[in-house]
Amino acid sequence: MIGVYLQNEEEREPAAEFFELFKTPWEFYREGESYDVLLSTGECPPLLGEKLVILYGSGPFLFDSNHGLTVDSLRGGSIVHDGYLDVPLYGEAATFPASDTPLLKVKGSARSAALVFNTGPRKVLRIGYNLFVEIRHLLTIGQPPEHAAIPSLDHHIALLRKWILGAGIPVMEIPPAPAGSDFMVCLTHDVDFAAIRNHRLDHTLAGFLHRALVGTPIDFLKGRSRWRKVVTNWKAAFQLPAVYAGVMKDPWTQYAEYLKIEKGMKSTFYFIPFRNRSGNGKSPARRSCRYDISDVRGWTAPILSQGGEIGLHGIDAWNDVSKGKEELERIRQATGTNEVGVRMHWLYFGLESPRILEQAGFLYDSTWGYNDAVGFRAGTGQPFRPAGARTLLELPLTIQDTALFYKGRMGLDEDSALELCRAVIDKARAFGGVLVVNWHHRSLAPERLWGEFYRKLLGEIGKKRVLFVTAREAVDWFQERRSAVFVRNGSGVRVSVHGNGRPSRLALRVYDPRSICLDSDVLHKVCGRTAEATEFFACEKRPPCPNPAPFSMG
Length: 554
Ligand SMILES: [Zn+2]
Fold this sequence. Notes:
By secondary structure, this protein is of the alpha/beta class. The protein folds into 3 domains: 2-169, Rossmann fold (3-Layer(aba) Sandwich), CATH 3.40.50; 183-195 and 252-476, TIM Barrel (Alpha-Beta Barrel), CATH 3.20.20.370; 197-245, no CATH class. Helices cover 30% and strands 19% of the residues. It has 15 helices and 25 strands. Strand 14 (268-271), helix 9 and strand 15 form a beta-alpha-beta unit. The chain starts with a strand and ends in a 22-residue tail after the last strand. 46% of the residues are buried. Zinc ion (ZN) binds at residues 190, 192, 313, 345-346.
């Protein structure tokens, strides 16, 4: 059991959320209680039998002067690392003198960012940043695009786990993926355009013609596109009169093609509630869409019958409760479901949005991501409770097609994009959570023609131990995990889960320090065993691990 002693009250919410994501036995420090691990963000409370004390904070603390430590402040935006994992820091942080055996080093400097002290049978770790200030930053402001590739929050969890194991203390946790899989995948589609026929002499049509007739040949000449795409796009442009005349199929109506490609995988479509609304009077007119959910009634039955989900592609819901309710109602009427999730059009979002969306009645939001990067804005792929919300979960968006390919965004060619996606998929495999992909509804069609890449991406994902789920199913699973509580049970810990009467899909994993070598270079090699989360589990009665397996931290 970890006891958490906080320096100030503002750390309470991010601390509680951090341990929802770590999902290991912990509680806020209670005087007189004995803990295996004491984690403090300030001076130490009176100690009892703790084997490990971890002091997080920029200080300076009394501990520092008692140990003759000179503390320097660290430049904001620095990266610290333990030899395996990088962690960008966003709050105040401190460095310590260089050490032969630092726990963390500052990148590009000889200084240490974390040190270990042995005081009798007890180990004390002095970490130069405040963990919960970092977590609050990650879950409210998020990481800048240049750090998108680093799952920083997951790295904070991995470091804490490693340090506890390094002190010879076992770690028990409910991993962030259902038993039998390494992570979940949500395939989602923002439907901004339902048909090209809805566009006549507007900027969308002009943009299409320009990119199809001029942009693709230029890309071909630069070696960034294939001749086949040039021909397909020219053909699509010259066939437009026949499409408008109703003689040819509309190339931008692609939902049935997605259902074919994603057979057996499930997917989530986000639809626009009202046509010709750009939103709250301040948005540019081109933000409005030329269709709404009432125009595509025929799509809902096939999507739902394949196990898919329909959610809201919101216009004003992010900053207006009453408009959010109105938009939500449009989706409820069309689908007959009460539980509706949302992703905002153009990823509009503010600090108040979680509270507003929750008050409007949404089950979850999946807006948090990047328009100009792919990866982990919150530093994790796990759905989390954003500040201001009590029930709503944020399901962060990981990979978006337009961010990868649009000029002015990342503007990648397909080979570089695939390499980047592979790296993100590998991180999801190592740390669990949900890989949320947004492939816009019209992206299979001319002039984008990103269908071949999408199939390759699904192939890459399919090589892993994954579970394809709808966004609502992913959020449901994480709600179940959040319902699990660890309770002291004599000298062990008991886990109880509210599974709504269904069999639990959670696993329990115990990392056993006896099966690892305590040499700091191989601390990552630990044994992860899983057991049913519904059974009692006492750490002391754990059988020795028969088969120590390497656990890769990616
Ligand atoms: Zn959109």
